[in-house]
Amino acid sequence: MTLLALGLSHTTAPLAVRERLAFPPHRLGEHLSDLLTLPGLKEAAILSTCNRTELYCTTSRPDRRLLIEWLASTQSLPAKTFEPYLYVHKDAEFIRHLFRVACGLDSMILGEPQILGQMKTAYRAALQAGALGKILGRLFQRTFSTAKKVRSDTAIGVSPVSVAFAAVRLAQQIFADLSQQTALLIGAGETVELTARHLNQQGIGRMIIANRTYDRARTLACQFRAHAIALSALPEYLPQADIVVSSTASQLPILGKGAIERAVKKRRHKPIFMVDLAVPRDIEPEVEQLEDVYLYTIDDLKDIVNENCQARREAALKAEEIIAMEVEHFLAWLRSQGASDTICAIRTQGQYLREQALQRARKALRRGIPAEQALELLAHTLTNKLLHLPSVQLRQAGIHERHDLIVAARELFKLD
Questions:
Q1: So what's the pLDDT on residue 160?
Q2: Is 50 known to be catalytic?
Q3: Catalytic residue, candidates 50, 57, 222, 309
Q4: Does 308 score more than 80 pLDDT?
């Protein structure tokens, strides 16, 4: 049986290719059932995110063509449109790849934690579809425990490595409890959306989203149960904001020193944490001269992000060591499964011989033989039956000079 992974990711394929191979979550069960009809396929799972699509399986026919043709048929695409971007991992390399993906070592942002949740979703989908067996099921469990160990034993996920995340972390340092704070986000692009997501995850008390186009602000606000406003309403809402994050495409500053000074007075000098992630800047540089205002620019945060990226790279080296050890542990378990059938057969034979000896001892008791004598008969009979066949085989091994078998027997029964 071979462990096989086939897929593509942001490291090998452009977005235009990745999005055409994506699997909708609500149809994963259907696709897994279809995948399991391929010849030789025993177990399967599908991981599909914006950055990767990967098929995981155990198979007696490790033929990548079968999986490629299945992908092409399922997604209604010519194989030549995506085949050049594919990679294949088998057995030990597959296990290592799965561990690295779950730990965020193969992610666009090193160490990001979202991929582990996405992998757990893929696991649950495969479990519900009845597509997991003993090997792949055990591998997923080992993957999750390895990711947990990497998170707890290294600093891979401690330091923020995006300006949006860095901004939220800084806000947490200034405000002990974000659930008591109001955040005002200006803009509706990717950076503001990411900031809103991080703030939401950290339990921000209230969120306001302002944008030049009100409909875009409302669309984004609906995702996070936030309040949408137009830019023209900023003077009214600015005094309510404890945290201000701005990222627009405006060529001129949106917030001037005077407007913020008035807001601070209305706040009775409660501090405002402001982050300007725009280029050109949305907030006039002179704002940093104001008391009770903490202003950071994208350059300030980039320095933090660069330092943290280095910290994560160092943590990744430790993570790779943990993964290498966990791969060996799983391979050892996998190798042990090769002896399972033999162990079961030995135990079955032993149970059969025990039952025969027990029946003979019971008959002796019924004939009136003393219990102690019946026990001796049981022990004698069982010992003879258990050792008869191995003894015969070892004598034959001696006759035919099968010294390897004799050495193996001495090791198996620890006769040395």
A1: 63
A2: yes
A3: 50
A4: no
End position of a domain, from candidates 304, 331, 354:
304
At 27-57, the pLDDT tens digits run: 999 999 999 999 999 999 999 987 899 999 9
Residue 377: burial class (beta carbons within 10 Å; 0-12, 13-18, 19+): middle
Of 129, 153, 177, the residue at which a domain comes to its end is 153
Does 388 reside within a domain?
Answer: yes
Same domain, 116 and 211: no
More confident of the two residues 405 and 265: 265
> pLDDT class for 157, splitting at 50, 70, 90?
confident
The answer, yes or no, to whether residue 139 has pLDDT greater than 90, is yes
131 and 55 inside one domain: yes
Kindly state the percentage of the chain with pLDDT values over 90: 58
CATH of the domain at 260: 3.40.50.720
Q: Do 104 and 240 lie in a common domain?
A: no
Q: Provide the domain limits for residue 179.
A: 163-304
What pTM was computed for the model? 0.63
Rg from Cα positions in the chain: 32
